[in-house]
């Protein structure tokens, strides 16, 4: 039966999905015949309106300068490319002398590269390079003069901090790389560029410290990224599944950050960061479960306060996934477990509502998620209005109308606030909350316990890129625990570095 | 092959032992409510050391080998027989864990409910543990141990003010018979000795640390379980005698700050312990079958084991006669004796391939 079912599913996949193919002709070499090459370029570009080409005579040789409109800074273009080309020394007599001059004596852009294929030509053009083709030479010269507009560096919206840097990643990859380089002025910091996406040819950068990273880990990440056969890669999220490990889980083994300082701290521990051009979110692998509860502020605050906040975050995580389900389970199956005064209040409140507690919890959480999603997607002023309406509907009108009990509103409020304490786990938290409400409402505390057992067993089974997700709590090691539930002060924390491959249970080979 | 460390393995076994020790077994006359049971526990601990000695001596000469691998090493026939026997025994124990836990639920917590729903859910969760592997279960057991210690401290801490030394009478007040009976029952329930002999190949550095780990395990079992029993006897005394599940009864009576009872905490821990024990024995059963049938059995062995466990458990929960018969076999100590003593000795007597006598 399963075989038939699999055949059916895979058959459907074959019909719907075809592996992306590169555009025809991109592997062909430039001929050196300027007219023929231009015809080929125009054909392959399908006369797209943003391709600008300019014909110039330089040193008695016809040349073509090509740019993609909007991708190049026109001021830079005029200053460091057009002007020198128009004023070449009179000693240059032929094309070879011109090429020699461009190669050795001129500075037509700091980032200058040569290429031979149409594929490379298009990649450079679309990355903000100006391309020079010289009659009679089967090669092109690309000069970097990117000048497209982009969002300026601002505070990251998803990782706001109290103390420390206010810089967050932006969309252009190069700007992000400079933000990292500025923070770690070591030759051991390495950026390794590769491309992903058959059509989009998106630039992807692996960022790591050569003196801390494990070679085996690096090979694995490289191989995984190269195995990503995607048509277009528009965000780091497209590549994330290729870095994930089995088993299927609600928790990710790939972390994301918008902060260059967080990224720097992680790569100094032997992790690898993956940045994708066009995305302000960098991915970090391997990423352990406890890292969801760490933030930059933990390392700038006093250790005792950082420890307090950490414990608060763990408590908030448990509250937000378990509180509604446990409340439903206790009130439905085990009311004797409530203290008398509390039980009386709950009973009197629930007596006036028409729905069973399970249904009530599901409705109110569903409405809450609706409001949250609407508030998030709408323009900010309207979003605020939706939040206020939501608060009024859930908090007051529903209780007054007798649809929902007041204790349930309290539960939702605590749950909602707790869920914002660990933003990196928001997706899994939301799903788990609904799952535990249903389990608690149907099977009581027994079901909740089974659910917790299965959830944590799944978490314990995960080992992102060879490191146990639950390390160093289980498998246990005392030394790394200095920065898990509590944080030691920097005098001790900075005494010895702790690499990811040193985590207990790690299967990553340590380099000699 | 997934491998776990020796400490992780013994934590797993400690959790299994805790589950068995405080789970009521009807007909055993053994409810841990008098001082004779404490001496019984001590004797059972010593007995398990003595019982393991012969097989320990055999396996020491073949480092890295479990009992099944050793049997195959002696002769393929002995290996097949041993794998079949141990697989059935582990399945028998897994069914027992599910049944004991379900009866605890349907008598103490959900008295009006039918057993089959609990059996199915519990078995499914245990199967998921097995599917995730020994490594995941062992890692989880580390976390559960912390929760167990926390809950025991909370429950025991609440009973310390009730301590009354007068309730501690001499263990010999009824003669030596109750002590010996208690020791025999406790020893016959020590099914954890079997995974200890079978899962050696799945342990890292088993050769070096196994003996030390075993001795620590015995000591921890005696101190922790004996300590809890002692506290129960001295604090709730005769009341515990009337209860099938004395620790659960104690948890129900515990008052801590604003909370009037802590039985929810007890249920939480007990469910997880039961899951760990069932999963461990299902895992042992599955691995034994793999030794027998090879990797081709990988896809269908686990669903079949799950089906048999669920069906067997439902049958035992519904038929009290069958349940009594099951317990009579289990408490007779014969299955454990066969596993730990008779089968290994028979295997070692088998003629080795190539004519080498044992």
Please supply descriptive tags for the structure shown above.
heterodimer, A: 512 residues, alpha+beta, 3 domains, five-stranded antiparallel beta sheet, B: 358 residues, mainly alpha, Amino acid/polyamine transporter I, two-stranded parallel sheet, 15 helices, 1% strand, globular
Reading side by side through the largest sheet of chain B, how are the strands ordered? Answer: 1-2
Helix content of chain A: 40-55%
Order of helices and strands of chain B: EHHHHHHHHEHHHHHHH
Percentage of residues in strands of chain A = 5-15%
* Content of β-strand of chain B: under 5%
- What is the average per-residue confidence, as pLDDT of chain A, rounded to a whole number? 88
The major sheet of chain B is characterized as: 2 strands, parallel
Please explain how this structure is put together.
The complex is a heterodimer of chains A (512) and B (358). In chain A, 46% of the residues lie in helices and 12% in strands. Chain A has 512 residues and is an alpha+beta fold. Chain A folds into three domains: 111 residues, no CATH class; 127 residues, no CATH class; 159 residues, no CATH class. In chain A, strand 4 and strand 5 form a beta hairpin. The longest helix of chain A is centred in the C-terminal third of the chain and has 36 residues. Chain B is an all-alpha fold. Chain B has a single domain, classed as Amino acid/polyamine transporter I. Chain B is 75% helix and 1% strand. In chain B, strands 1-2 form a two-stranded parallel sheet. In chain B, helix 2 runs parallel beside helix 15. Chain B is globular, with a radius of gyration of 20 Å. The mean pLDDT of chain B is 87.
Break the fold down into its secondary structure elements and pairings.
The complex is a heterodimer of chains A (512) and B (358).
Chain A lengths: L1 H15 L17 H12 L5 E8 L2 E8 L5 H13 L8 H11 L6 E4 L2 H8 L3 E6 L5 E5 L28 H11 L5 E8 L5 E8 L5 H12 L9 H8 L11 E3 L2 H8 L4 E5 L5 E4 L17 H31 L6 H12 L5 H21 L2 H21 L5 H14 L6 H36 L28 H4 L19
Helix pairs in contact in A: 6-9, 10-14, 10-15, 12-13, 12-14, 12-15
Chain B lengths: L3 E2 H16 L13 H26 L6 H8 L1 H34 L5 H18 L1 H26 L17 H12 L4 H6 L4 E2 L1 H31 L1 H4 L4 H8 L9 H31 L4 H21 L1 H13 L1 H16 L9
Parallel strand pairs in B: 1-2
Helix pairs in contact in B: 1-6, 1-9, 1-12, 2-7, 2-9, 2-15, 3-4, 4-5, 4-12, 4-13, 4-15, 5-12, 5-13, 6-12, 11-12, 12-13, 13-14
